[in-house]
Amino acid sequence: MLIFSWLMVSTCMSNEDTSKAGKQNATQLVLPVATPFWTYDLSEEPQSGFFLYQTTIHQKPPFFNGSIPLVFTERRGVSGSSGRFISYSFRFEAFRNHFIYKNPNYRFSGLAEGAITYTGTNLKRAEARVTKPNSGNDSLEIEEIHYGDDQKPVFYCKSEISYRTGFKVREYEAKGTKSADYFFMWPVHTN
Prior knowledge:
The chain is mainly beta.
C-alpha cells in the first residue's frame, strides 16, 4: 500500500521535491490502490437486446440521500447461455451507473464485477469494483473511488452490499470527501 502512495506523489520529482510536494499538496488524496480500475468506452454498452425497466423504490436505501420514492431506469438484458438477467446500467436523475461484466464467471452469475458513474455530460464521477464476491453475512464487498471535476480522486472507501436487498449496508476504510453516494445499490440478480 505504501508503494502506491509514494508513487502517486513522487512520479516526476526528486527526493527533495517530494518532501515539498507532500507539504503543498496536503489535500491530495493518497489511495491504497492503483487507478483507474476500468477503461470503459460507452459504445461498449449493447445498443440492442436489452429491456428498459422503470423502477420505483418506496423504502429508503441506507446510504441514499435523496427523496423517496426513488425512481430510476434500468437497462437489463439476458446473459447468454446462463439465462440470468444482467443490468447494463441504472439511470438516475443526476447520474448513471454503467455496470461491467468482463469476466465470464461474473457475467454467468449475473453479478456485475464493476461500475463506472457518469453525469449527463459524460464526466466520470466514480468507479467501483468487486473485491470479495462473498464477504460473509450474505454480502459482497466493493471498492469505490470518486473523482472531482479535474478527474483526480477525492474519495475512497470499501463498501458492503447485501445480496438480499442489493443495498449498501456498510462503508469503511473511507478517505477523502464524498460529494454523493453513487453506489448505494448494486445489481445482485439471483433469478
